[in-house]
Amino acid sequence: PIEKLLERAEESSADLIGITESPQHRYHLQSYFIYCKPTLASHPAFLAYWESFIPQPNKSLIIEKNELAFTEYFSNLGFKPYALISYDLLFELALKGSYSATNMLQKGIHVNPTHYFGDLLLTRFDFPFVKIELLRDNPSKINNLESLKYILKTKNDAYYRLVIDH
Predict the structure, then answer these.
(1) Contact partners, residue 49, CB within 8 Å, separation at least 6
(2) Distance of CA 143 to CAs 103, 147, 148, Å?
(3) C-alpha distance across the termini of the chain, in Å
(4) If DSSP codes are grouped into helix, strand and coil, which group holds residue 72?
(5) Across-strand partners of 70?
(6) Cα–chain-centroid distance for residue 33?
(7) Residue pair 132/163 in contact by the 8 Å Cβ criterion
(8) Which segments of 17-131 does DSSP mark as H helices, in order?
(9) How many helices (H) and strands (E) does the chain have?
(10) pLDDT of residue 119
(11) CA–CA gap between residue 79 and residue 36 (Å, rounded)
């Protein structure tokens, strides 16, 4: 359930809230979940952004032109972004444990939180999402995705079945 996340987003003083953020490429809120407060959603710049929005033909352009640009555009206008689960916190916890991201972080490499912190997000934060792309294609070549599947199955077998069937 995402009700708790929605409550936390509403309680935040930020204008633009994501569940996770990433420094990969450059700082941005990850776009699978963006909550826009009325201070942003009612602003003329918000409408202007969507009026000039251009769908992109491939994933790398979607990330560059839409996901990264979205946070950057509104931040540059003075709107405050905020992540409910900060990258710094995930980084800190991953370094203290044995998670998918631990080895990469020790090398100083920024990672995609929804890929490399999937196990940490599910176990420590009751994260309500799992990227199908991660389980189906594993574009980040993460070792031992079976443990992520096991965590998901243990938390909720019905959802696990939906994910695996998808």
Answers:
(1) 70, 73, 74
(2) 11, 9, 10
(3) 19
(4) helix
(5) none
(6) 7
(7) yes
(8) 38-41, 44-51, 59-61, 69-76, 87-96, 102-106, 113-116, 118-125
(9) 12, 4
(10) 86
(11) 10
Encoded tokens for 113: 């939180």
Query: Is the Cα dihedral 152, 154, 155, 158 positive or negative?
Result: positive
pLDDT in tens, 115-148: 888 888 988 888 888 888 888 898 888 887 888 8
CA 148 to chain centre: 16
pLDDT in tens, 43-97: 999 999 999 999 999 988 998 989 999 999 999 999 999 999 999 999 899 888 7
* Both structure tokens of 119: 């196990």
Residue whose structure tokens are 């769908």: 55
Half-sphere exposure for 38 (CA within 13 Å, toward CB):
2
Phi-psi region of 126 (alpha: psi -120 to 50; beta: other; left: phi over 0): left
* Averaged pLDDT for residues 29-51: 95
In this prediction, residue 44 carries a pLDDT of 97
Cα 154 to Cα 29, 120, 132, 145, distances in angstroms: 29, 14, 17, 14
Alpha carbons 29 and 74: distance in angstroms, whole number: 11
d(CA 133, CA 144): 15
d(CA 38, CA 85): 22
